[in-house]
Amino acid sequence: MLGIEMKKLCLAVVITSAPNLAFATERDVYTEIGVYSSWVWRGITFNRHPVVQSYLSVSFTESISGSIWASLATDDYEDFQNQGQIQEIDLILGYSKEIFGVSTKLEYFEATYPGSGSESARHAQASLNAPTPLKLSVITSYSYGFDGWLDKIHYASAGVLGNGFSLGEYGIIKPMVSASYWSDSSESGLSHIHYQISHYIDNFALSISHFQRIDEDVLPDFAPALAGSAGSNGYEERTTFGLSYNF
After folding, report:
1. pLDDT digits over 169-223, tens only?
2. Model confidence over 217-229: pLDDT tens digits?
3. What is the dihedral of CA 227, 191, 39, 204, to 10 degrees?
4. What DSSP designation does 71 have?
């Protein structure tokens, strides 16, 4: 079963890119696949077991891109996720532009949940990356959900990203730290701090992330998109490890 779904995961990436490849010889195509010890998004644990995740992005112009992202479960999880199921597939449309040296990006996300059959969730996100003279960039983002379990949820984050500290032939290191704010119909406030350090060498990246809660009452107690009201996965402090390859 896992082998079949792995093929589906790879096929989803290929099918998404196929309509563009005929005229994409002058375009940027980026593909990444990775294995992660668990899956945490915005401080919410979506899977405590290892997952396989893939990402493909095609630049149609210098500013406009289309992407697909997917996550595959490698083990049974609680009562709602079976081994080998694709938990989530996201379709993303992005517009990016550099303004006075600051990288800006607007994105639309449509998240689908084939593993659980939950309703699709949609949100829009704006982000900034402003470099500084200290080999660090100030990063900020804001998103608003307008459908599914993300409906009327405001989410914002701000932090600092290392632009790359060289280790010579051993690659580069990029540290990152950010704090996040969550607001829904019942709770709002600072939710968690995200620490991450990534080591890039050739086409490989090794990452370690830690999510530390600030206010445990802010985020939901479970991941509604995956579990409905039955899931117990949710907001918790967690450290994750990942290994990815891009080509």
Report:
1. 999 999 999 999 999 888 899 999 999 999 999 999 999 999 998 887 887 765 5
2. 887 765 555 544 3
3. 160
4. E
DSSP H stretches of helix in 102-229: 224-227
Report how far residue 143's alpha carbon sits from residue 94's, in angstroms, rounded to the nearest whole number.
Answer: 13
- What whole-number distance in Å separates Cα of residue 22 and Cα of residue 19? 7
88 has a pLDDT exceeding 70: yes
* Fold that domain 2-246 belongs to in CATH: Porin (2.40.160)
| Alpha-helix runs per DSSP H in the chain | 2-21, 224-227
Domain residue extents for the chain: 2-246
pLDDT score, position 11:
44
| Alpha carbon distances (Å) from 157 to 32, 36, 92, 179, 227 | 24, 22, 19, 6, 25
Provide the 10 A C-beta neighbour count for residue 134: 9
Give the Cα separation of 75 and 82 in Å (integer): 6
The span from the CA of 233 to the CA of 187, in Å, is 18
Task: For residue 199, give the nearest of 170, 225, 224 by alpha carbon.
Answer: 170
Distance between CA 49 and CA 36 in Å, rounded? 9
Question: Which candidate, 86, 50, 59, places its Cα nearest to that of 70?
Answer: 86
pLDDT at 226: 52
Q: Considering the entire predicted model, what is its pTM?
A: 0.84
Contacts of 152 (CB under 8 A, 6+ apart): 144, 145, 146, 184, 185
DSSP, res 232 = -
The set of residues, in sequence order, having a beta carbon less than 8 Å from that of 4 and lying 6+ positions away, is 84
